[in-house]
């Protein structure tokens, strides 16, 4: 019997001294940003989960490059631009990304995230999984307009899922599930099964 239990939370507001998985994700995303041609001044970061001086300098440089408030704090606006600019594919400069970390209870193998979203928003669900684990996703929407836009693996490779696709994660790390809307606002449930 499968166990279903999940918690979905907004990514933490990060600053100097923060530690943990959200800092690790920040460092990975900043390392991806620094590979974009034309962006200068972003140093490679060690992905260690510690928001030290080097990560703080990287955040401030990122905020400067993308005309954000330069405070060294990673809040909703900085997270949104970081995902918009580091995800594969082209997104409108007005697209808003709302990132959430999905955490399963220790014995759970699946979970359901239920939310609503407005047009122009994308939700990014961060799921940590091990290499070789299989993921199956199902999204339902009363308005029939919420879609899984893409899955981005821990090495920033985009996978466009088809209906009833079963995907195997290629490596251990944070994988991203991007949900968008085909039109208007949407209410939806996203079921995530990992085994």
Give unreliable regions as ranges: none
Helix-strand string: EHHHEEEEEEEEE
Shape: globular
Number of strand elements: 10
Specify the biggest β-sheet.
Answer: 6 strands, mixed
The level-1 CATH class of the largest domain: Mainly Beta
Arrangement of strands in the largest sheet = 1-2-4-9-6-7
Per CATH, the architecture of the largest domain is Sandwich
Summarize model confidence as the mean pLDDT: 88
The Cα radius of gyration reads 17 Å
What helical percentage do the residues reach?
A: 10-25%
- DSSP strand content: 25-35%
Total tally of structural domains: 2
Question: Which secondary-structure class do the elements indicate?
Answer: alpha+beta
H/I helix tally: 3
Q: What is the fold named in CATH at topology level of the largest domain? A: Jelly Rolls
- Could you tell me how far the N terminus lies from the C terminus, measured between alpha carbons in angstroms? 12 Å
Short description:
This protein has 3 helices and 10 strands; from the N terminus they run βαααβββββββββ. The protein has helices at 21-33, 53-65, 76-86; strands at residues 6-10, 96-104, 110-117, 121-129, 134-140, 146-152, 158-159, 166-168, 173-181, 186-194.
């Amino acid at each position: 019997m499968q166990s279903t239990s999940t918690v979905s939370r907004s990514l933490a507001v990060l600053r100097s001294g923060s530690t943990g998985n959200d800092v690790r994700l920040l460092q990975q995303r900043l390392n991806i940003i620094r590979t974009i041609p034309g962006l200068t001044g972003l140093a490679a970061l060690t992905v260690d989960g510690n928001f030290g001086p080097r990560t703080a300098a990287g955040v401030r440089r990122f905020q400067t490059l993308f005309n954000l408030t330069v405070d060294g704090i990673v809040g909703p606006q900085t997270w949104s631009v970081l995902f918009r600019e580091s995800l594969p594919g082209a997104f409108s400069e007005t697209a808003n990304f709302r990132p959430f970390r999905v955490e399963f209870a220790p014995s759970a193998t699946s979970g359901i995230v239920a939310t609503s979203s407005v047009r122009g928003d994308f939700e990014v669900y961060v799921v940590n999984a091990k290499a070789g684990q299989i993921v199956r996703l199902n999204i339902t929407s009363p308005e029939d307009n919420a879609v899984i836009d893409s899955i981005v693996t821990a090495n920033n490779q985009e996978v466009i899922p088809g209906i009833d696709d079963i995907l195997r994660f290629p490596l251990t790390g944070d994988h991203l599930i991007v949900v968008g809307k085909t039109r208007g606002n949407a209410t939806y449930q996203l079921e995530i099964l990992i085994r």
